[in-house]
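Side project, low priority. Logging it here so it doesn't get lost.
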Amino acid sequence: MTEPRRLSARELAERLGANAMTLAAGLVPGGRREGSRWVAGSIAGGPGRSFQMRISGAGAGRWTEYAGGEHGDALDLVRVALCNGDVVAAMRWAESWLGLSPSGPAPTLKRAPPPTPQQQAAAEEKDRRRAAWLRRQAIEIFDEAQPLLKGTPAEAYLRARGIELAALGRQPRALRFHPACHCSETKTKLPAMVAAIVTAEGQHLATHRTYLAEIGGVWRKAQLSDAKLSIGALRGGFIPLWRGSSGATMAEAPQGERVVIAEGIETALSCALLAPEYRTIASVSGWNLRNLVLPPAITTITIAADNDKPGSPAHRGLEAAIDRFVAEGRAVFVARSPAGKDFNDAIAEVAA
């Protein structure tokens, strides 16, 4: 009888990724679910945000520990958390846990012991230093980029998405083009549209990158596991894309102003094209939507929500954001695209 083919490391990582929630809760104790991510102080667990792992959707199982600078897929998490870096041992453990090994029953997940107060204090100090370093890197990437998008692959990318910046009359200052932005996935430098993630007062917290590639003569998102990434601590921040009819900065927004919030840059720009009279920002991610810190002058919010399925993590995150804004005394409305996943899909469909 022919012995069944053993799965490759990549195949095992994909199978583990399909069970990312269970894996993360078992291997990274003391963490918590935030939308589509499992968040903890470190791989060892505990409070904090240095460790973040996708537990649903595209890229489920991929994680980063910002304090230690480590990242990888679900199999890498097993390798680091349980197997002292031994990839072969991690593969054998994964086979058994997934029920693919004939050698015996699936092992139980071994929770790491909670960190001591001294270890926790050291980890928090490391987190602070890492956060400061990441913020410096984020600002450096943005400063290196070209302020004008006109004639760049970034402008061509937006045009391919149905977004003509000329129709707005000006380019958002938060957007720039970087001709050679480092990509950790490919270990090379790629062209990228970069965006400043700021506080309401204008402090630069982080930088968002959309890696680009020319595919079939058209500039599109690069074919990567994560073509869109942020560097820096973006919690509470946003990408300011359009000031609306007031023309004021967010910090100087007139009392009673309405803001339109979309998750992605492309969706937010599409909303600005459709309703230029309103201030428009991008929250960058679904989980950050409910963490946005907005000035009291913003009394009305319209969330340009993606057409996510009711009950999905993204939909639950939207409901949490609505509850939070209402609790702050703001009026909240939800707008949904009549076509596709979001308003950019609708605009791109018309442009095509």
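Brief comment: The two ends are 55 Å apart (CA to CA).
Revisit when time allows.
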